[in-house]
């Protein structure tokens, strides 16, 4: 096992009717900026619940944060934060709204000239403007970690940031919101969380017994809950398991002491940056081909996954490992998610090279648990993903 | 799934040579009280490592905190804290030293006349004197939770306390210490952690998929690692898995959203209070009989344990559940732990009634996940444990 540090001070408030606790979580003397996305919270009742809980507070609103939160939009929100002298932000939404809020948390206290530098220069944030979240879309785990991803369309970039100053003070996770989420986004959430676990698990054996069992446990749970939550999003128990699995998939716990990959995410970000394809779907496009390419390096963990998660008891390591890759791709398909780039765009010729150039520009030239996913390798993986 | 809140701000620093980080974890202007137990840290090198890391600090020492930390001893330490105007405590030891330090954290800021009230009146601690820990004995999980248990021999009491003010600021867990731990204490640690998981898992099904998988994962890991760590405590990987499993068994995570039992602990505390038997061994005495007594209520989870942890695929629910109880008792035996009170003392006649009286005095009259373990039931369980 590798050395590690685990620190996660988020106060996670999970369950039914927890939004009413907002008034005990935010002090009344703070001026609050409430951030949200395209307005779905006004249809599903969350907006009203939050406003009611914040009755008597000085609240400013900023809506319209889009999926894959856009730098230009966030810069408008930053202006509001400064003009209105905001003390505390409340992100009400999914991973995009929360990630956007994390960028703002950092940018609000950034002393440089251009907040884009936080992303472009990979500056870690040790202290940010305080914020909390009300989660409306289980998927990214952003509600209980200190990372974020922000896009900038004008230059086709999607970049990551983070730091210990970017943990939410609290996150309210009420599974009853799941019933109002469109099927497409539920499928994305399951695929996203499942892939998060794979990025932290599917490397090579290092004898980390508990971490492996936890990762396998989250994936088993997602496989078990996926058909239930897809069939009936108003099934509270299914929704609660879905939501909790998504949070645990990326709150930092399962990666402690083990090697992690994340090359699939870095390559897949390029697809979203170029084509605007949903994040989860880009992962499903890249992952099966990446695992085929790295079959020799990953086959032992692939086989372990087959044994423990899929209950495959026969065959040698290679057969079990192949079975695992097929089953993972079939799991994406079972969620209604296509796993070939050509199923999303006709304009894919030459994309692999563009993606490789972008990765090179960002210094992402040694990805994966062995640092051997070069931009050239990314080209090979992406060309097989067409 | 039940509603829950998860909050655990402990900065956990895990791995080889991590004690050197003490100087970055404690600010130099703080006067430090270093607390430890019977002196084993002076033999295994931990004392020297800590002193070296704290070179240049103003450090006062208090040694001699015993297993099942004793109120009278801790009151002496409290005197030192007040006389020396201590700012920060560093617990260097196992669960007993850490639990004792938690009591001191609370007592140092307690405004009542008699700190015993914190235990006797079950007063929650919202703010304590800050402290960190260097763990030398994996078992109780105290390094990453906010609970403690303190004994007072003169009145045969062993009482629990806790509160959000009692999380360590940091805990350093270096698995290399395991090689110096006596076999008896390693066995106790495995049994203790294993039983902690059972108290949070072996109740009734509530459809909490991730929590169940996590609990099963910790227990599977402990079963896998137990023979390795017993055979060779200098096996670093085995030691690291043992240590991490113990921490995860009782840091609050696996109990979130699920019913918990804890009646075994409450009844077993009475055995330690009366006979001074090691905590882990008292659990092994009480648990099998408690599960036999509550067979109908627990049989579904017992069967699930048999299926998933023991890989039992045949038999009906009752058969699998019986198999589970037998296997748990055999696991204790495999660690060299006896599971009958008569194997620890000849003076057991009438003890069950005394224990029941003590439980009644403490108001523990409705224990277990259904609140149906009355003092009368405790008598029945204990008499079968003779």
Largest interface: A-B, 43 and 43 residues
Radius of gyration of chain A: 20 Å
Given the C-alpha coordinates, what overall shape of chain A results? globular
Which blocks of ≥5 consecutive residues of chain A have pLDDT under 50? none
CATH third-tier fold name of the largest domain in chain A: Dehydroquinate synthase-like, alpha domain
Any guess at the CATH architecture of the largest domain in chain A?
Up-down Bundle
Average pLDDT number of chain A: 97
Main sheet properties of chain A: 6 strands, parallel
Indicate how many domains the architecture of chain A comprises. 2
Report the end-to-end length of chain A measured between terminal Cα atoms: 37 Å
**Tally of strands of chain A:** 8
Percent helix among the residues of chain A? 40-55%
Please name the fourth-level CATH homologous superfamily of the largest domain in chain A.
Dehydroquinate synthase-like - alpha domain
Assembly context of the chains: homodimer
Class by helix and strand content of chain A?
A: alpha/beta
How many H/I helices of chain A? 15
**CATH class label of the largest domain in chain A:** Mainly Alpha
- Strand and helix order of chain A: EHEHHEHEHHEEEEHHHHHHHHH
The strand line-up of the biggest sheet of chain A is 1-8-5-4-2-3
Strand residue percentage of chain A: 5-15%
């Amino acid at each position: 096992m590798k050395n590690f540090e685990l620190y996660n001070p988020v106060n996670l408030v999970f369950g039914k009717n927890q939004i009413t606790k907002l008034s005990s979580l935010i002090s009344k003397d703070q001026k609050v900026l409430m951030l949200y996305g395209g307005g779905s919270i006004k249809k599903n009742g969350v907006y009203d619940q939050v406003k009611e809980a914040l009755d008597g507070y000085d609240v400013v609103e900023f809506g319209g944060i889009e999926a894959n939160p856009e730098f230009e939009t966030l810069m408008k929100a930053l202006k509001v934060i400064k003009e209105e002298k905001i003390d505390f932000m409340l992100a009400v939404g999914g991973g995009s709204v929360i990630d956007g809020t994390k960028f703002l948390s950092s940018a609000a206290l950034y002393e440089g000239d251009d907040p884009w530098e936080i992303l472009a220069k990979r500056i870690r944030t040790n202290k940010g403007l305080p914020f909390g979240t009300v989660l409306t879309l289980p998927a990214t785990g952003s509600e209980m970690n200190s990372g974020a991803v922000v896009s900038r369309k004008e230059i086709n970039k999607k970049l990551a940031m983070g730091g210990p100053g970017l943990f939410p003070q609290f996150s309210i996770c009420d599974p009853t919101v799941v019933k109002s989420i469109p099927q497409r986004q539920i499928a994305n959430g399951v695929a996203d969380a499942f892939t998060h676990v794979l990025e932290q698990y599917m490397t090579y054996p290092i004898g980390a017994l508990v971490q492996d069992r936890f990762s396998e446990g989250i994936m088993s749970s997602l496989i078990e809950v996926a058909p239930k939550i897809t069939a009936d999003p108003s099934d509270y128990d299914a929704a609660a398991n879905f939501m909790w699995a998504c949070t645990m998939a990326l709150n930092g716990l399962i990666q402690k002491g083990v090697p992690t990959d994340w090359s699939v995410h870095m390559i897949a970000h390029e697809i979203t940056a170029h084509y605007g394809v949903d994040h989860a779907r880009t992962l499903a496009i890249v992952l099966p081909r990446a695992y085929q390419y790295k079959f020799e390096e990953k086959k032992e963990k692939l086989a372990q996954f087959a044994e423990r998660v899929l209950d495959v008891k026969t065959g040698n390591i290679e057969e079990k490992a192949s079975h695992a890759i097929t089953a993972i791709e079939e799991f994406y398909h079972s969620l209604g998610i296509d796993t070939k780039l050509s199923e999303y765009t006709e304009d894919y010729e030459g994309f692999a090279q563009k993606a490789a150039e972008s990765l090179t520009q960002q210094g992402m030239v040694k990805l994966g648990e062995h640092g051997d996913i070069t931009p050239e390798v990314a080209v090979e993986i992406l060309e097989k993903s067409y």
